[in-house]
Each structure stands twice: as C-alpha cells, then as structure tokens.
Amino acid sequence: MSGDVRYDDAEPNGLDMMVGGLIEANLAAHPARRRLLSKMATYSISAPDVGVAVSIRLSPQGVNVRNGVVGKPQVRIEAGSDDLLGLSAVPLRFGLPDVKSKEGRAVNRKLLKGELKVKGLILHPAKLGRLNKLLSAT
Fold this sequence. Notes:
By secondary structure, the chain is of the alpha/beta class. The chain has helices at 14-29, 81-87, 102-113, 125-135, and strands spanning 5-7, 41-47, 52-59, 62-67, 75-79, 92-93, 96-97, 116-119. Strands 1-4-3-2-5-8 form a 6-stranded mixed sheet. Strands 6-7 form a two-stranded antiparallel ribbon. A hairpin with a 2-residue loop joins strand 6 (92-93) and strand 7. The longest helix has 16 residues, at 14-29. The chain is globular. The two termini are 20 Å apart.
C-alpha cells in the first residue's frame, strides 16, 4: 500500500474496504490520478437496502474513508447496493453521466425515477467526476 488511503475506523465495513481498495488500486495503476487529490472534497455513498454507508474525504494528504455519513458531504450518492456496484463503470461527460452511452442513459433513467439519488450533482459535477475517476479502472 502506498499510504494514499487511510481508514478512520478500527473496523471498516465492507463498503469502506471496497471503496478504499478501488481507490488504492487505481492510484497504484494510474499514478497521474494523484493530482485528483490536490483539492479538498467530501462525499458519502450509502446503500440503504443493506444499511451501510461510507464517507470519503479527499485532500492533498490522501484519502480518508470512514463508516457512515460524516458531516455534510458536498456530494451524496444513495442507491441500492446492486446499482452502486455498477456505477464506477458509467462513463461521465463533464462530470455527469454521459447520455451518449447506454450505461449513462440507464443511470439518467434511475436518477429521474428516484432509484439513484445524487445530492450535489448540479453544484459539484467536477467533484463527482473526480470521485468517478478515482473509483473507475478505465
């Protein structure tokens, strides 16, 4: 481990480990993505159907991952656990789901139906784009 990801809980939950592991692996595979940590940003991801949530804080010092929703994150993502697993593969355009792609259209349909909630999407699309790049293997 390069030390880019730190877990703030003694016993991280499964979602914490998955998110932190994806970020750590992508930073190792794509060292240029460390520049995405240059500005502060806070996120939460929650899957109410399985009762788990994670908070993520990006800073020049690295990435902090913590159980639950902490404070008032700038971008909050809430969806069923199955939907969350597939989101990192969704291509973005200007930080928003790309409607020119099949996956992007599917995400937009879920947004419109309320199956996927992204608070902060309009105010912070670039921050959502940064998180997607950190979670995506592409």
